[in-house]
Amino acid sequence: MNFANLLVEKENGTAIVTINRPAALNALNKEVLEELYDAFKGLEEDESVVCIILTGSGVKAFVAGADIAAMQSMDAVVAENFARLGHKVFNAVESCSKPVIAAVNGFALGGGCELAMACDVRLAAESARFGQPEVNLGVIPGFGGTLRLARLVGKGRAKELIFTGDMVDAAEAYRIGLANKVVAAEDLISEARKMADKIASKGPLAVRFAKQAVDNGIEMDLDRAGRYEAGLFGLCFASADQKEGMLAFLEKRPAKFSGQ
Ligand code: CAA
Q1: How many Å lie between the centroid of ligand 1 and the Cα of residue 99?
Q2: Roughly how many angstroms between the first and final C-alpha of the chain, as a whole number?
Q3: Cβ–Cβ under 8 Å, residues 241 and 258
Q4: What is the DSSP letter of 110?
Q5: How far apart are CA 97 and CA 232, in angstroms?
Q6: pTM (two decimals)
Q7: Catalytic residues
Q8: What atom in ligand 1 is closest to the CA of residue 110?
Q9: Measured between alpha carbons, how far is 132 from 144 in angstroms, rounded to an integer?
Q10: Ligand 1 within 6 A of CB of 236
Q11: C-beta of 204 in contact with ligand 1 (< 6 A)
């Protein structure tokens, strides 16, 4: 996979996707968004990849937002199409069948915070800063910020962050549930790899179904979500991984999952 604005490395079942536009603090323009979409589609189909880590290049920013220089002269129709593209790409990240870990290495602002929120888990370097500063520019979040921030941290906190445009540091992001864990900046990628390796050692089908159960179930009422979860639980029993996982427990040995 060769991209102008992304680096994609693969090692031991984990792909690391690095947004690589450090001169613009990894800001998202149309080209970067289209490349991200292609990268995730490729990784979805790549059977050698079990987990994905998404990060930004350099020490300063994960992603400092949608590209303001590119947006400044947009008219309403072009802006709506740009936002629709952002939604399409972030939905592809969120609905990827493989777990996606955001390794937030600096500013995650606007579209950057929205991208981190489309990932399954957010590991934050101590230097990370999160925020939805769009109101400073006379606009609102356009790549899912109003939706995902409210779901992650609750309506009240989401509205406060979006209305004030304030940034929060990593410790505050952790406190409000926006970051899963805070680690030293120099340990960020190794900690993300450690988490990816741990997830990769589990039954891949079970992890995939669990992701579907959480992501889809949270949008349903409890009764439908319960039936949906029970259906996926039942489906696990059609897999070799369930037979192996339970047999290995009873034989007091580590399970060897095949993903079948
Ligand atoms: N778009 C385009 N370029 C950006 C950018 C962005 N979102 N963020 C930073 N850059 C560029 C700067 O213009 C600057 O370029 P030059 O060197 O060519 O001047 C370079 O990156 C470095 O940035 P700064 O000099 O500003 O660095 P700083 O350390 O002084 O400040 C910062 C860092 C606080 C992150 C500041 O750059 C900033 O506030 N950036 C904008 C953040 C923002 O408003 N993001 C939301 C964008 S709107 C959005 O995302 C809408 C949506 O939901 C879809």
Answers
A1: 29
A2: 27
A3: yes
A4: T
A5: 14
A6: 0.97
A7: 114, 134
A8: 50
A9: 11
A10: no
A11: no
